[in-house]
Amino acid sequence: MMSRTAEYALRAVVWLAAHPDSAVTGQALAAATQVPSDYLAKVMQSLVRAGLVDAQRGKNGGFSLVSAPEALTILDVINAVEPVRRIRNCPLGLPGHEALCPLHRSLDNIAGQLEDAYAAIRLADLLRTAGVQPLCAVAEAPHA
Amino acid sequence: MMSRTAEYALRAVVWLAAHPDSAVTGQALAAATQVPSDYLAKVMQSLVRAGLVDAQRGKNGGFSLVSAPEALTILDVINAVEPVRRIRNCPLGLPGHEALCPLHRSLDNIAGQLEDAYAAIRLADLLRTAGVQPLCAVAEAPHA
Q: In angstroms, rounded to a whole number, what is the distance separating the alpha carbons of residues A130 and B122?
């Protein structure tokens, strides 16, 4: 299950990937992705800190992707803002019990499958689908 | 990614499944699962409301599972407390745009795979694993 923060980060990154020709201001990005601008600012900070997004100040400044959409996966974006929680140790947290019980081992296996599913989708895959806009078409509205 | 609430619900239900002979008080269940008792009380309310757990008042009262562990899956428990969020409509929420873009369609596909993975594991599967306690062995400690 994906957090709101991760979903917002993906909207922003997909938008940047679909508009590679110039940097996009935070304001324009917030409008295009329909994310509250304060919230988006925090998300973008995390993406910059993780090295996925470049932020240029000044005139013609704004956000742009550091890597090509072929080189980025959904998992990269999620890991930058809110990684899938894996269960490495007993969540009951008492010392001396390091093996996971069947419940927590099963849940961690599924969390691993979730990571794999996210890692299998590159941003480029989300741009190439024929006939459908990256992000819902409505995201173009602020530019119309 | 699983919420804390869902994980707590699973601890409780697995514990009840592993101790079918008598009803378990909220206090004993909180101790066994290491979940704060106020938090657990809310989780148990949801499980009772969903018809997964029976709550008997009075002496010898407490919580017990309504169904056999063979008839319950992890997904049933998650759905009772905090279902996997599916994306049925464009999250950008403007009217007239009902088709999902590639990003949100991909995320919803993965959410569906997550539901399938949870649905494939019955509570009984979590009890039968040889040599490991259901829930980490430490959960037995309060009874020692």
A: 40
Domains in chain A: ranges and CATH: 4-143 (1.10.10.10)
Q: 15-34 in A: which are within 8 Å (CB) of B?
A: 33-34
The closest CB to that of A14, out of B103, B113, B138, belongs to B103
Average pLDDT over residues B42-60: 95
pTM for this entry: 0.85
Helices (H), B82-144: 102-119, 123-127
Structure tokens at A106: 């099963």
Q: Which residue has the higher pLDDT, A5 or A131?
A: A5
B126 vs A contacts (CB less than 8 Å): 101-103, 106
Report the complex ipTM: 0.86
pLDDT class for B109, splitting at 50, 70, 90?
very high
Answer whether A118 sits within 8 Å of B100, measured CB to CB: no
